[in-house]
Design a protein that fits this description.
The complex is a heterodimer of chains A (about 100) and B (about 375). With about 100 residues, chain A is an alpha+beta fold. Chain A is about 40% helix and about 20% strand. Chain A is built from four helices and five strands; from the N terminus they run E-E-E-E-H-H-H-E-H. In chain A, helix 2 crosses helix 3. Chain B has about 375 residues and is of the alpha/beta class. Chain B is about 35% helix and about 10% strand. Chain B has 15 helices and nine strands. Chain B has a nine-stranded mixed beta sheet, with helices on one face. Chain B is globular and about 55 Å long. Chain B starts with about 25 loop residues before the first strand and ends in a 19-residue tail after the last helix. Classes of the chains: A alpha+beta (about 100), B alpha/beta (about 375). Chains A and B meet through strand 2 and strand 3 of A and loops of B. Chain B: This is PqqA peptide cyclase. Chain B: Belongs to the radical SAM superfamily. PqqE family. Chain B: One of its GO terms (molecular function) is cyclase activity. Chain B: Catalyzes the cross-linking of a glutamate residue and a tyrosine residue in the PqqA protein as part of the biosynthesis of pyrroloquinoline quinone (PQQ).
Amino acid sequence: MTATLAANGVPRLARGVRLRHDEARGQWVLLAPERVLNPDPVAVEILKKVDGARSIDAIVDELATTFTVERQTVASDVDVFLAGLAEKGLIEVTSPLVGDAAS
Amino acid sequence: MSLVEEPRSRVEVPARPAPPIPYGMLAELTHRCPLQCPYCSNPVELDRRNVELDTETWLRVFSEAAKLGVLQVHLSGGEPTARRDLEQMIRHCVEVGLYTNLITAGVGVTAERLRAISDAGIDHVQLSFQGATAEVTDKVSNFRGAHERKLAVAREVRRLGLPLTINSVVHRANIHQIPDFIELALALDARRIEIAHSQYYGWALRNRGALMPTREQVFWALDVVEQARVRLKGVLTIDAVVPDYYAKYPKPCMNGWGRQSLNVTPSGKVLPCHAAETIPSLDFWNVREHSLPDVWLNSPAFNAFRGTDWMPDLCRSCERKEIDWGGCRCQAMAIAGDAAATDPACHLSPLHADLLALAEADAEGTDIYDYRRYFQPDRAS
């Protein structure tokens, strides 16, 4: 498959998008303008790591370790999921500064 | 680590199915507004400033809403920025985990105020445009210069990085501008636009003869919106509120009475929808005397049309009963004179032909508005 997001890009939820646990219904929800989305358990694990600090690479590493899944598979799932969110404007992916990438 | 809570075993079987949990709450913080739109969704009898809930009560209501399971709060009015404690309310909503949506007319809101609202943590801003051009906006809102001010607010909202929705209510004087509304939303960098056909309750019902479009205009509008939706997929979300006087099926009003949302008026009454007070037989509980969960679960007004048991045979035997939810109770009241009747917008209603005849007659009406206003000078403000 073709990667659509840079692996060293740093994703964060767009302004006006929030992930929270919904106590009343016992589920995680992604809140957006006039939308309440119910991410599945895999999506929730990815979204919890979308914090504007971790790179996509780092997210994949952590998930592959935690769930002992082949890194390639995780990378592909994360890419498809985050690219879909980016297209809907729910996340923004920033590229790290050149200096950061070199260090 | 488990993501899903184990279902708790139930010993008692409830007498009736547990009511659903509401997702959204419309908080009408005030009825004060600089604009006078003739289709305003506020009741004809507007609440005055001296009967508005105080800050403390609103904060309690927001806390109770969060506990009840409400996820999104729509801070509306009137013009919500007329409340000086708006930022305090937003901060509180953020604290208790509520997603906050500001619904503003964008007139009399300075850049400084917007920054304060943004800093307080607002999640999303909805800005109304009464027309796609200054001429139409200023005429419909009866406020000279309104359009220019709205444009400035829209730009400031985007400069602050906040997501923006453009709200447009369409009717005979501006329905031809739908393509221009969409262009305006794109030019203002909005991600979403609401194109809502005027719904005929309260002020809009009074002004129906000046607002009602023709059948041709309505079907043209539906077509334009559908084409734009396809063309702008991924660029602009277009949410439409459809006109029902010319429809075959009624709208699933509020997605069912007392099912997903609730509305708190400036003076603290809790309503299943903003027009519910037009049903005279209902008694609405007030947050001054009851907690929000108590109203949601136990008030007679919320239980009056909840579910499908209240329905007339025509609706109860219909395969669409849990799609349309019987349509709109306020419309049944307004047209059939009975809130428990089948919505006359449904093609199976015995009054359907009458509703269509009303629309066709009103589409030929005069263009003179009975603008929204307080009937007596507001001495309290």
